[in-house]
Amino acid sequence: MSEPTFAEYIRELRTELKNYIDTRTEYTKLVAYEKMANATGSLAFILLVAGFFFFTFFFVSITLALYLSEILNNQVYGFALVSGFDILIVLMLLIRKDAVQHFISEKVAASLLKDHKNDQLKAEAPYERTGKDKS
What we know:
Layout: H1 6-72, H2 75-95, H3 97-130
């Protein structure tokens, strides 16, 4: 049995490198798909909660307007008071737009960093269980 030549080592190295790159590319795609699926699920959840919040706010506003109309004996005044209150809330949100966006950005970033940290812990877990050195 003869020893492999330098050219055979290079061919084998090239094959192994190609397999490694293909595997790494596939892994990166899978991680990207997982992140997109998580983002889509989070977005759907946020939209669902926002929709329920909108309808709840809408019906509470109508209920409050009808209640104030009874107390004031004038429907216009009751609805005007509630509409004024709703406009005031919207104006406050518009004035504090930067603070609201900053708060939401921090929460999203914290969520992404938490996911990233969990991914790192999952990647390190097999080494910790087997006691093998990961380097």
